[in-house]
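Structure tokens please, single chain.
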Amino acid sequence: MKKLRDFFKVDSNIRLLIVFIVFSVAGSLSLVVADNIFSYLLEFEDHDSLYWFFRIIILFPIYQVLLIVTGTIFGEFRYFWEIEKRILKRLGFKLK
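Here you go.
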């Protein structure tokens, strides 16, 4: 457990459990929300490469927003905001 706590940079098993729950809830919710948005905005006959391209483009920002929202609901806004900042910096965005 200590290795997991060190990897996720948390100080207790309870906080580690909360982090796991937030990641799983945000991931599941993002798939549901993106699927609903995707079915209303774009209609594809088959699941070709264009379908997957647009699905990923729609899914990524939804997941990022839901990760912050879900983290805030579970009282871990600061933790997940730091993760968001790291992701955005890796994508080339300049943040303070």
